[in-house]
What we know:
This protein is an alpha/beta fold and 450 residues long.
Amino acid sequence: xxxxxxxxxxxxxxxxxxxxxxxxxxxxxxxxxxxxxxxxxxxxxxxxxxxxxxxxxxxxxxxxxxxxxxxxxxxxxxxxxxxxxxxxxxxxxxxxxxxxxxxxxxxxxxxxxxxxxxxxxxxxxxxxxxxxxxxxxxxxxxxxxxxxxxxxxxxxxxxxxxxxxxxxxxxxxxxxxxxxxxxxxxxxxxxxxxxxxxxxxxxxxxxxxxxxxxxxxxxxxxxxxxxxxxxxxxxxxxxxxxxxxxxxxxxxxxxxxxxxxxxxxxxxxxxxxxxxxxxxxxxxxxxxxxxxxxxxxxxxxxxxxxxxxxxxxxxxxxxxxxxxxxxxxxxxxxxxxxxxxxxxxxxxxxxxxxxxxxxxxxxxxxxxxxxxxxxxxxxxxxxxxxxxxxxxxxxxxxxxxxxxxxxxxxxxxxxxxxxxxxxxxxxxxxxxxxxxxxxxxxxxxxxxxx
Length: 450
Ligand code: ADP
Ligand code: MG
């Protein structure tokens, strides 16, 4: 596996040269190798379902060709999101090995706790209800139905309940699934050919638990058999005082696919909604996140983010981590308002609309000056190499706006101050020196025509 990770690092290096910096930072760098199977399938995990879909939609070909180049031909790539990864690990790793198994046993994200949930007007009743249910499962509100728009903390609250009960009542069996998992599980248990699970296993799994959570119930299919199965499961559990918790992006009466009898079951307990956080709550959420992730960022930068993103907490967090990541990459210890503005502008992506990559720029410079790529990224100090090298550094920095640290990496691991010096030198020369102006403009022409 160590060897696979080494190969993967080479893949990453290749990708870094062939895609824009933002794409690299956002999509490729966070990818993690899960497994490399004997039949040549490379299993990767993206940091979220969103990231997974982005990669599949926009970057799969790049990924595939980099992997093929490094691993050799004919590697199949399978990308998981974090929950699929968990499932894969629990299915494929033998029970006896490693701590990974133990952590995969806990289906709850340990960061999603009540302590880490910031309470404001927008969510205080839903929070209180979740807390009451966690303290007295089956005895306060049953079912508890939490609804609210995307990224407002439904999954967080469900996991918080799960984490809380695991701690306080470790003997209770808690089952957490997304609606989709429930449906797939059910269908799989019915299938005949080559089936791995039987219907009775399915029943046991869902009816012998003390707490059942179903996330995103709005995805329940119209198929009556699935709804019927869920209806029966619900009744069975409810009748024996087992806790049921359901989340949805809208209230029961607005879920079109829901059968009437289920809808009325959902209204038996307590229905609570999550609203978009107000400005103060958004600031508090960002501060909390900084504390958890140990980010350092200035107060005005936090306010700026909280002002600009006003509905979705997931986006709020995403922007915060993007800002801190980028600021860190250029060697800053405290992210400030400039980093935020930078991250908000789509400059990176716009700038790179011509689709040029660092690699292409380097190739063009090499061709123009008739030197090799090894020379330009290497250590040679003769003038006929140093000047093209500085021009390449300048052009990459100017055209792609790559952070200095990343450019340093491309040029054989040079320090970011060296890169800065080269960039500034060329940028000054361009103001007065005819020769430098010609070099740069001719190389640019090569890039746009080629
Ligand atoms: P949903 O399931 O409603 O789409 P999530 O529960 O996945 O949303 O929340 C999205 C992100 O926002 C998560 O990282 C979660 O921790 C965070 N989040 C949402 N609400 C809060 C809050 N009140 N306090 C702290 N973090 C929150
Ligand atoms: Mg969710």
